[in-house]
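User: Predict the structure for this protein chain, please.
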Amino acid sequence: MLNLSSDERRTLRARAHSLHPVVSISQSGLSESVVREINANLASHGLIKIRVYDDDRQAREQYLTSLCERLDAAPVQHIGKLLVIWRPQPDDQAQGARHRFVRRAEPRRSKRSFQGGSDR
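Assistant: Here is the predicted structure, written as structure tokens:
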């Protein structure tokens, strides 16, 4: 299991905010096909959200721990029934650039309001 610093985790949580869950874990639990699907999505996206359809918080925590250990990933967030995990993509590992996911924020641009008038 990978370990992240609090700054890395905060950056990843911010990036994950706009993501939709790509995999769901149903009442059947963590089957091999679900693990393969999560592995494939981690390989292509690096940062993913997983929806768990289980009301037991302890079970969701166990899913998160188990997935991170089996797939060599880092737990980013567990909020409600959503799990967020991250694993560096293969090209990041080849270059040894673990912090590649950190992006600089773009400066905010002011919104121009339409100054009314007629088009005559």
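Residues 6-98 form a domain with the Translation Initiation Factor IF3 fold (CATH 3.30.110.60).
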